[in-house]
Design a protein that fits this description.
heterodimer, A: 182 residues, Pyruvate-ferredoxin Oxidoreductase, domain 3, six-stranded mixed sheet, B: alpha/beta, Rossmann fold, 4 domains, five-stranded mixed sheet, 16% strand, binds iron/sulfur cluster
């Protein structure tokens, strides 16, 4: 198990790519690991393809080179098509998709986070469901992203809105279960 | 106490400014620089600092305001994006001659790529032209560090100093220590000296001489000297010179590949240190990695030994990505490099938000003048090009003067196409007003549509002079757009909500007819940006549109001509469907379907 992690989070503008990037970064910081991220601002945020880079460990540069990422979180099936080239051979991809996505170069796991979010009555929160799904998938790869420290951050973030925190935590949990039940 | 935070490069810059006693910060928003001033405001509130933060009407105003503070002895800063520096070029050139008393930082954020800009211009070249020192940080952490060094440098030589981050510094986050800032305020003390501060051309010559003397000394300034960041100095063979984000990427790659080549990081690309230029002369081959033009490269003495942007070894176009850095370092060092297989797919084009009032305005313009020429400007509404309602985008404020130019160009043709210009509220204040005045005096027959959504949406919703709130969110005097338009001498001014599409189209037609004989007609499209409205407001005004399944034949007109992201064609039913997750209930599409298949729920 390595403490150096390079992760790509990819989606469309407005899907909350940044939100989950910050949560994952926060979890690593809680472990006192150095963190670098890089994000998309400006025009592309209006519904274009957006990407976040998350690097944990001893790095200087903020971007991730093609074929070096440990994992990819794809918030749309098309996000996988666009950005899977960042993954190293055998890297983990979690894809928000109702249908299976095949690619034998990588370990691909699909889950329908959108349906999960819809069921919870919050279509905008598919990012959180996907984050839960990712936590489930990463469990055996690294200890960095502990569900407990994420839960702590979410509670802190929504201190003033306990109902929202509750919702987000539930979705995170059902995302993790979605992975287990695959 | 754990003081570690994950902070954005722009926040790190703000922290660096305030930690080093900056008392006035002014800016005009522009990606990738916008978060600098917002971060100044949040730190000011969080740490209870008694400082001034201001969104100015444009970069020139921001520059001059902050500069005066430095003339009065305070530490001050101005922030903008690279093309904003073009707007502020006039005060930049002059202020470098006059110099400063308090430290003065000019932050100009470059956008190699370009990700969100019209050009990939290198602000460091602007620094060469203006003759002021420029510092080039490689990370959020270094940006904060260099802010302090820059203030020292500025005060040591009484000269403005440029800080030039790039997108990957501005929009990267790094875990960093953030401590409480204790500020010791300076009193403003302007020392009157017209011979200097209001120098006539004769004295400017003298100032220019003094400036050259300063630059010679700055090229020897200890704290900004190039740093050996990897390997040992050899004095022969190969060396690599790096700056900005390329420096961060190169360090990772040199380490990973354990290359034994000395790597020097230049933090002050101009003026390049004299001693360093001598030192480099000892190497047989030098690779220079910098963005976006070869500014360091051009100052090295023997060009034949140098490989970089100017010699064509590195592409002068586009961003220097880490994979490019790796490939070029390998080629330079003569080691193997296996390029990974990449299949680039065309990305999704950005589009106006579902329910964006601009979409309604553009659709109306196309209806009112199907054969028109449509000049436009910089902002979210540039995306009106997707709707075929934006033909030109040049630079801030250009749409109005270009509209004039087109009508003049066509004046002697047999037929004159109608000319419509669109400009956002913030851009109108920034640089639209002079152009409008000009069209009044020349009686230019065109229609100007001011897209007033009460905010600077594209860059993150900064206030405009019409918003009635300042950078800190406190209320302030709101300037009235119609009054300005009237003051410019325009006699046709109509204000309307583009959500009421049929009425809005009628007004545009009326304006079109009016301008032919009488000169400019102005229509102000008033509707707030949706991202600025709170949920309750949106909910209250939500109008549910449904697809009448008996009528919709799946012609796709609304999808292609109105392209609201909430509208899609369902391949199974061959009818249009509305995505409930995206639809904001603006109901504008109900006017768009030529067959009336999109109807308000309670009117079916
Ligand atoms: S952010 Fe506001 S102005 Fe920009 S596209 Fe969305 S609704 Fe329109
Ligand atoms: S009402 Fe129509 S135009 Fe407005 S957001 Fe919904 S689908 Fe789009």
């Amino acid at each position: 198990m390595s403490n150096n992690q390079q992760i790509i989070i990819s989606g469309l503008g407005g899907q909350g790519v940044l939100f989950i990037t910050k949560l994952l970064a926060g979890a690593a910081m809680a472990d006192n690991l150095p963190v670098l991220t890089s994000e998309t601002h400006g025009m592309a945020q209006r519904g274009g393809n957006v990407i976040s880079y998350l690097k944990i460990g001893e790095f200087s540069g903020p971007l991730i080179r093609p074929a070096t990422a440990d994992a990819l979180i794809a918030l749309k099936p098309e996000s996988f098509a666009h950005h899977s080239y960042f993954l190293k051979p055998g890297g983990l991809a979690v894809v928000n998709s109702p249908n299976p996505v095949e690619d034998d170069r990588y370990r691909v796991c699909c889950g329908d986070a959108t349906a999960l979010a819809e069921k919870a009555g919050n279509v905008r929160s598919e990012n959180v469901a996907m984050l839960g799904f990712f936590l489930g998938a990463m469990k055996n790869d690294t200890h960095i992203f502990s569900p407990d420290s994420l839960a702590r951050m979410i509670k802190e973030k929504f201190q003033a809105k306990p109902a929202v925190a509750e919702n987000v935590l539930n979705l995170l949990g059902s995302g993790m279960q979605l992975f287990e039940k695959r | 106490m754990n003081t570690k935070r994950l902070i954005l490069g722009n926040e790190a810059l703000a922290y660096g400014l305030l930690k080093n006693g900056c008392q006035m910060a002014c800016a005009y928003p522009g990606t990738p620089s916008s978060e600098i001033l917002s971060a100044v405001v949040s730190l000011k509130k969080e740490m209870d600092l008694d400082i001034h933060a201001q969104w100015a009407v444009n970069e020139k105003v921001a520059f001059e305001t902050a500069y005066a503070g430095a003339q009065a002895g305070l530490r001050t800063a101005v922030a903008m994006k690279q093309v904003g520096l073009n707007v502020a070029a006039d005060p930049l050139m002059s202020s470098v001659y006059l110099g400063v008393k308090g430290g003065f930082l000019v932050i100009s954020a470059d956008d190699p790529g370009p990700h969100s800009s019209q050009t990939e211009q290198d602000s460091r070249l602007m620094a060469v032209m203006a003759k002021l020192p420029v510092l080039d940080p490689d990370s959020p952490g270094q940006a904060a560090e260099l802010a302090g060094i820059a203030f020292e440098l500025s005060e040591a030589f009484e000269i403005p100093v440029m800080l030039r981050p790039t997108t990957r510094v501005c929009h990267s986050r790094q875990s960093m220590d953030v401590e409480k800032i204790e500020m010791t305020r300076r009193e403003a003390a302007f020392d009157k000296n017209p011979g200097r501060w209001a120098a006539t051309p004769k004295f400017r010559l003298q100032l220019h001489k003094e400036l050259e003397a300063k630059l010679t000394k700055i090229a020897d300034y200890e704290p900004t000297r190039p740093r050996l960041v990897s390997g040992t100095a050899k004095g022969c063979g190969q060396a690599i010179v790096v700056a900005g984000v390329a420096a961060a990427n190169a360090r990772d790659i040199i380490k990973e590949r354990s290359l034994d080549i000395p790597v020097y990081q230049v933090v002050q690309p101009f003026p390049l240190h004299k001693e360093f230029i001598r030192q480099m002369n000892a190497y047989d081959e030098i690779l220079v990695l910098e963005e976006t033009w070869g500014v360091i490269e051009m100052q090295l003495a023997d060009k034949n030994r140098v490989k970089g942007k100017n010699t064509g070894f590195i592409s002068p176009v586009g961003e220097l990505l880490p994979e490019n850095v790796e490939e070029r370092i390998c080629a330079f060092a003569g080691v193997d490099y296996q390029a990974p297989q990449i299949t680039m797919l065309p990305g999704r084009r950005p589009t106006l938000c579902a329910g964006c009032p601009h979409r309604a305005s553009f659709y109306a313009i196309k209806k009112a003048a199907p054969k028109g020429i449509f000049t436009s400007d910089i902002g979210c509404y540039t995306l009106g090009c997707n709707l075929g309602a934006v033909d030109t985008v040049t630079c801030m404020g250009a749409g109005i003067s270009q509209a004039a130019g087109f009508t003049i160009a066509y004046a002697k043709n047999e037929k004159q196409p109608p000319v419509f210009s669109t400009i956002g509220d913030s851009t109108f204040f920034h640089s639209g007003i002079p152009g409008l005045i000009e069209t009044v005096t020349k009686k230019i027959p065109f229609v100007l549509v001011i897209l007033d959504n009460r905010t600077t949406a594209m860059t993150g919703h900064q206030p405009t002079p019409a918003s009635g709130r300042d950078a800190s969110g406190d209320s302030c005097i709101a300037v009235n757009i119609p009054a300005i338009v009237k003051g410019c001498g325009v006699n046709f001014i109509k204000i309307a909500d583009p959500y009421d599409l049929p009425a809005f189209i009628d007004i545009l037609k009326e304006a079109k007819a009016y301008c032919k004989e009488n000169g400019p007609a102005v229509v102000i499209a008033e509707h707030p940006c949706l991202l600025d409205m709170d949920r309750a407001e949106l909910k209250a005004s939500f109008k549910k549109v449904i697809v009448n399944k008996d009528i919709c034949d799946g012609c796709g007109y609304c999808v292609s001509h109105f392209e609201c992201p909430a509208l899609g064609l369902n391949n199974d039913t061959e009818q249009v469907c509305i995505d409930p997750g995206l639809c904001t209930g603006c109901a504008v599409c109900s006017f768009v379907c030529p067959k009336d298949a999109l109807v308000l729920e309670n009117q079916e």
